[in-house]
Amino acid sequence: MVHNVDVPRLSAGSVKLHTRQFGTSLKMSSMTSEEYKKSVMQAKEHILAGDILHIVLSQRFERRTFADPFEVYRALRIVNPSPYISYLQARGCILVASSPEILTRVKRREIVNRPLAGTVRRGRTEEEDNMLGNELLMMRKSVPKAYNLVELGPNDVGKISKPGSVKVEKLMDVER
């Protein structure tokens, strides 16, 4: 695993995209509010029954825009400089994605699972950056979430790995 790699530090900026041509309201969601609430209740039932340990419920929102997808990608690189950002154009589909976490990487025969348990803005100085990192480690919400993710990661990876080969190398590590 690679940690504390010296990468160029990019600060967030701002970009003006002409996305409001059709108004600011969302035009379509993948489910109604009632359907989402029903999904939450079903998820709780599955957790209580022991069928699943963890679930992330989400829904898709869409709105019409004439913004160029590659310009959206370029804008994301400026306003949210992320180490994991991608632009994929295939027949009938364009994907623009940005994430601060690696989540899972497979390289050769090694699987790295590194989800984020919390985030905080970067400091303006190295001292402020370290202070914010220490505060993140102490946040009551981040600590239980980190332990939950550490429990889930080896459980998931262990299903396809050699017995005894899964190990947690670092716990509660602040990545910059």
UniProtKB/TrEMBL annotation:
Gene3D superfamilies: Anthranilate synthase
Pfam families: Chorismate_bind
InterPro entries in UniProt: ADC_synthase (IPR005801), Anth_synth_I-like (IPR019999), Chorismate_C (IPR015890)
Residue span(s) of domain Chorismate-utilising enzyme C-terminal: 33-176
UniProt GO BP: L-tryptophan biosynthetic process
PANTHER family in UniProt: AMINOBENZOATE/ANTHRANILATE SYNTHASE, ANTHRANILATE SYNTHASE COMPONENT 1
Record's protein name: Chorismate-utilising enzyme C-terminal domain-containing protein
Organism: Asparagus officinalis (Garden asparagus)
